[in-house]
Specification:
There is one protein chain. This protein has 476 residues and is mostly helical. It folds into 2 domains: 37-200 and 249-264 and 313-447, Na+/H+ antiporter like fold (Up-down Bundle); 268-307. It has 18 helices and 2 strands. The chain has a two-stranded antiparallel sheet. The radius of gyration is 25 Å and the shape is globular.
Length: 476
């Protein structure tokens, strides 16, 4: 068989091979980078650094002006005009929260949160990891303008946290990685509730009717057997717009839509194989007919496409489709728009600025690991749950410090908590950046120091079958 017969190896028709080869050489390194777990966190860190440098450079004024650029959506008399900053923080971040909602539902239905026995340990750890940072912050800011920022150090950035564990490589056992992910997911649930309950204002109950209409529309589409696609966009947009009008932060609409997506595949693996074989057999029969019409091949190809789509659940398919856009598009854009703190304009003599910074940094760097460790230890001592096999208490400390990486969610909450003060908002962002760097470096160094020794000690006492069983227990 020559290269021309091997369709996937030969260049597409009408393409210029030298240009295509050059494009492949440029694209392939980018694709490899995007498949590395730590890459999203590295991109975020790089973009945050660019934003910080830009905001404090001689061109800092252009940084501020860019995000205040008005963008109008609509036609005729029906127009909606808001700044570029609004469209990033309130609209694009709703897609980020949609992915969060999909992850939450997947974990609840079939992941680490699907059974109480499996969920008890990460739930206890995550609750401790939310309460202690909030209490530490409140201890420094129990009154005054900064008192409302207690929700900022509660949050964990999944992308950065998973990235740190990816850098640790085999030192971090699979069960510890799944534990970190479960804690981060529960953390997100807590952050979503905090945003919806405490950082929303001016509620107008008339808009609740339209929220309900959008939810009913998505529910009805699911019950009618309509699989998620573009038809779900109008009700999703209705929920988003109504949330904005209602007074609840509109990004919560993304969570609601994500939680409503089906998590069970229609065909599944077995059904896909059966349907695919039938479609391929029909394709072969039609193509072997003399003087066949290529239009007759469309029907079996459509059935093959449908089988491919329904081999996995719509929720997983949507999450996989959106994840690259969120990880390498929306989140870096959010970081660029929000991490640019003008350091020369900070005035720590103003009320609450210094205590807010101390509260956020200590909440992330000290409160997170302390809360996760104490809640985990207490839940084990009270026999509410057991410490998972292949996980040591040193590993819990590493997980706790890693969870102190707040970044995206913490900056997002800071924007809401300090909306009435430019000074506090800037201080909050800077504190989150400092706390994130300290937690990230600390988690990596501690992980490099203790996890390798812990792993050898645990592996000496646990058989291979037990390790495999525990890994399946957490990842099933």
């Amino acid at each position: 068989m020559n290269q021309a017969d091997n369709g996937h190896d030969s260049p597409p028709p009408e393409s210029w091979e030298p240009a295509r080869n050059l494009a492949l050489k440029l694209v392939q390194p980018i694709e490899r980078f995007m498949h590395v777990e730590a890459s999203s966190g590295l991109v975020l860190l790089g973009v945050a650094f660019v934003a910080l440098v830009w905001a404090n450079s001689p061109w800092g004024e252009s940084y501020e002006h860019l995000w205040h650029t008005p963008i109008t959506v609509g036609f005729s008399k029906f127009v909606f005009e808001r700044s570029l900053h609004f469209w990033i923080n309130d609209f694009l971040m709703a897609i980020f929260f949609l992915v969060v909602g999909l992850e939450i539902k997947r974990e609840i239905v079939e992941g680490a949160l699907s059974e109480w026995r499996r969920a008890a340990f990460p739930v206890a750890a995550a609750i401790g990891g939310m309460l202690v940072p909030a209490l530490i912050y409140a201890a420094f800011n129990y009154q005054g303008a900064a008192a409302g920022g207690w929700g900022v150090p509660m949050a964990t950035d999944i992308a950065f946290a998973v990235g740190i564990f990816a850098l640790l490589g085999k030192r971090a056992p699979p069960t510890l990685r799944i534990l970190l992910l479960a804690i981060a997911i529960i953390d997100d649930i807590g952050a979503i509730l905090v945003i919806a309950i405490f950082y929303s204002s001016g509620i107008q109950f008339a808009a609740a009717t339209y929220i309900l209409i959008g939810i009913i529309a998505i529910f009805a589409l699911n019950r009618l057997g309509v699989r998620p696609g573009l038809i779900f966009v109008p009700p999703a947009l209705l929920i988003w717009a109504s949330m904005y009008k209602f007074g609840v932060h509109p990004t919560i609409a993304g969570v609601i839509v994500g939680l409503m997506m089906p998590v069970k595949p229609w065909y599944g693996k077995e059904g896909f194989l059966v349907a695919a074989r039938k479609a391929l057999d029909e394709f072969q029969r039609v193509s072997e007919k003399p003087n066949h019409d290529d239009h007759d091949l469309i029907q079996p190809l459509d059935r093959l496409r449908k089988a491919r789509q329904e081999a996995i659940s719509p929720a997983k398919r949507l999450e996989a489709a959106l994840h690259p856009w969120v990880a390498f598009g929306i989140m870096p854009l959010f970081a660029l728009a929000n991490a640019g703190v003008h350091l020369g304009g900070l005035n720590f003599s103003s009320a609450g600025s210094m205590t807010a910074m101390i509260g956020i940094i200590l909440g992330l760097v000290v409160g997170k690991p302390l809360g996760i460790f104490l809640a985990s230890w207490l839940s084990v001592k009270l026999k509410i749950c057991a410490l998972p096999d292949c996980v040591t208490w040193s590993g819990i400390w590493v997980t706790g410090i890693t969870a102190g990486i707040g970044f995206t969610m913490a900056i997002f909450i800071s924007e809401l908590a300090f909306a009435g003060s430019d000074e506090l908002r800037a201080v909050g962002k800077l504190a989150v950046l400092i706390g994130t760097v300290i937690a990230g470096v600390g988690a990596y160094l501690l992980g490099r120091t203790v996890l390798s020794a812990d792993q050898s000690e645990v592996l000496a006492n646990v058989s291979a079958s037990e390790i495999e069983g525990e890994t399946k227990y957490w990842t099933s």
